[in-house]
Amino acid sequence: MRSHMAGNQKFPSDLLLVAGLVILTDIIVLIPVLNESFIRIVLGLLLVLFLPGYALVALLFPAKNGLEGVERAALSIGMSVAIVPLTGLALDNTSFGIREMPLLASLSVFIILACAGAYIRRKQLPEDKAFEVSFKKSASSIVEVLGKPESSTEKTLRAFLAISLLTLAGATAYVSIFPHQHDPFTEFYILGPEGKADNYTMEYVQGKSETVIIGIANHEHRTVNYTLDVRLENKSLALPENLKHIQLEDNKTLEEPLEITPSIRGKDLELQFLLFNETEKEIPYEDLRLWIDVIGEA
Hints:
Layout: H1 13-30, H2 38-49, H3 51-60, H4 69-92, H5 100-123, H6 135-143, H7 152-177, E1 185-191, E2 203-205, E3 210-219, E4 224-232, E5 235-236, H8 241-244, E6 245-248, E7 253-260, E8 266-276, E9 286-295
Helix pairs in contact: 1-2, 1-5, 2-7, 3-4, 3-5, 4-5, 4-7
């Protein structure tokens, strides 16, 4: 009698395809020649709207009798919509922040690990019990989406899947036909001494230095010459040469520590961070403010 016990399965084709799409997306994003192509848009949408959820569903439901194909697809989209914002929230509490490369790396690692876990769980099941994807049957299931469902639950899931697929296709078509050109802008921010957008020093000692981190990200579609001015109660503070005049290429980010040494005492003193661009020298292009207390020397 032929054995159907676990341990003889090849790496499942669906998990192999998911892992391959993740790796392909990473390669295309990292190669400058390809990262503005239509392929990146399609793969990026898959990476955000489908693959994380599919990998997690595969991990949670390794058996055939767990979920049907249509239900898996619908749940994959819904879970992806939840996973991506949670990943962004986690990154926002780290020094990496919500940026393209950290988010890409986090999602890629999550999907690959979830696929590996799903493979291990399927391998522990008898071969005839482990979930597998027949792409021919999957195509037939999509065609049957508009057919009469067997239950109200199945009807809801199939309708959700159909709407999601249409939305995904429409979004892909729109972005490819009418690519959005972002308006030029500059990110200007300050971070605390630990490199996070919190834990700012709010109480200073007169004559004693404390550190903040100045951040500038150029998205102006050109190289820009910036001028930085830091003022305490409208009086300019001394700045190092590398922060007085800054030349920054397009899509480049500068983060540099700056020591603040207040020479006056008082409560609720206004500490201004003013960034000027090369076209306007009188009115700040971007500005940030902190209100600090400065006490006398101990």
